[in-house]
């Protein structure tokens, strides 16, 4: 755990040394919200719809940060000449992954602040304070499956392939998860399929908590199952990659 904290610190420092990377990570979710949500007056002027839209874009912020930051950074790190040397050090390899995931979630949490400010100022969203705090905590927890998907992409793909795979994964998960288009507008077959996606489950948990209606049981069970399955797969792939490259 101590080594994971060290890796988190230096991942944050490395990110801060590239200002455009920080600005892009902070501005992208808010820009998407301004372009896709604010022009829809029916959504902006309805407190329930506005709250759901803001919560959905917060989930999108964490999902996109997890996929791009973890997937691309991990693929890039594996391609660097120093990667074989790092594998000879006595530190646990999982500490590097934990540090990368933690730093990514911290950046995503900071990126959530301007999004919440814009949503509070320019929409009718008005969640209860306790519901808002609970939703903020849950959006971080429910982002773990997306982070694990990023680990799997970064472990199995090279830097160039990781870009293409991450872009496809982001759009499929975002659209299928109801982040761009509310699930109420889905046809029955798409609504049923999307309920099996971890991002849709994360959206339902966060939106339900923000609205005060509670998270559906199927979403809670689904996100737990995805976390276990993706975690086991990510650990197995990473250990296999570590052993193959070390030999």
UniProtKB/TrEMBL annotation:
Give the transmembrane ranges. Answer: 18-38, 50-76, 97-126, 132-154, 161-181, 217-238
Keywords, sorted A to Z: Membrane, Transmembrane, Transmembrane helix
Asked if the keyword Transmembrane helix belongs to this entry, the reply reads yes
Output this protein's name.
ABC transporter permease
